[in-house]
Amino acid sequence: YLGTRGAANYYIVSSIEVIVAKELTLKDRFDWYMEMKDYYKAWEIGFDLDQMDRLELGLKYIDLLKKEEKYEGALLATTEIFQKTIDGTIDDEHENEFFQLAVSKWTNILMSFLSLGFFDQVAASVPQGLGIDHALYDKILLHYLDCDDVEKFTSLLHTWPNGSFDISSIIDAMNIMTISPALQKELAYLYHRNKDYLHSVNILLSLKDMQALDILLAHPIFANFTNKIHEIVLLPISSQTESRDVAPFTLKEIKRGFAKP
Questions:
Q1: How many CA atoms lie within 13 A of 37 on its CB side?
Q2: Within 13 A of 253's CA, how many CA atoms are on the CB side?
Q3: Cα(101)–Cα(51) distance, rounded to whole angstroms?
Q4: At CB < 8 A and 24+ separation, what contacts does 95-101 make?
Q5: pTM for this one?
Q6: Between vectors from CA 204 to CA 202 and to CA 207, what angle results, nearest 5°?
Q7: Among 63, 84, 91, 155, which is most exposed with the fewest C-beta within 10 angstroms?
Q8: How does pLDDT run across 24-59, given as a tens digit for each residue?
């Protein structure tokens, strides 16, 4: 066993051969990972690559996992690779172009997972505020709406920020369906979020929901509901869980019911 002074080269000598061993450079390691088709390891150390080349390397790894039907791992890799890619962009004209391209590719890959039925997983990992196409969010919401999964549908509606999904498209879809009172209230919420207070109040009045009164007090639209003044006046009573006639209420109960906090 011999070593050369000051260099990372080592020689293993036998009677029939001489083996030279040396410390691998970063490029050596990268080339070896590529040869072994270990695209994830190559992506991890590929800092010196052009941004697009490095992203394409990450995409190869994602495609490999999908071909092997390792979908959960592929989805996790998608989040990691694109998030680190986006985090590495710089705010100048060239980088903005790359940013938009990366976001577009991210959207397409997430859409491909939806086509495989991974709605729960995509809904849990879809990024916020990056300009992802609203069609992705719409597709997830419409899926839960069609499945009548009120809990997940409602949770996402109240979690995703304005601009994430097309509110009008979701409203249109709900209006051609027969929906439960719980979903009718979410429809009223969407109308309110879309600043369509008239439709929102009409639905809430039909549900005898006190939020209708809050909207009427917050916006100058009361004149549009003069034909429903009776329903509005009785809201503090009719909105109570236990149905009671007006007559049995005492004056004190009625005053307390109409009092706003």
A1: 5
A2: 10
A3: 11
A4: 98/51, 98/52, 100/131, 101/52
A5: 0.80
A6: 115
A7: 91
A8: 677 888 888 899 999 999 999 988 888 899 999 999
Question: Do you know the residue count of the chain?
Answer: 261
Cβ(57)–Cβ(39) below 8 Å: yes
Residue type, 128: Q
E-only strand ranges, the chain: 2-3, 9-13, 18-22
Cα separation of 170 and 210, whole Å?
24
Partners of 3 in beta bridges: 10
Question: Which residue is listed with tokens 């639905």?
Answer: 203
Amino acid in position 138: D
Q: Which residues pair with 159 in a beta bridge?
A: none
Q: Confidence band (pLDDT; 50, 70, 90) for 21?
A: low
Residue 180 pLDDT more than 70? yes
Backbone angles phi, psi at 180, to 5 degrees: -75, 165
pLDDT digits (tens, 9 = 90+) for 66-108: 999 999 999 999 999 999 998 866 555 455 888 889 999 999 9
- Pair of tokens at residue 13: 């000598």
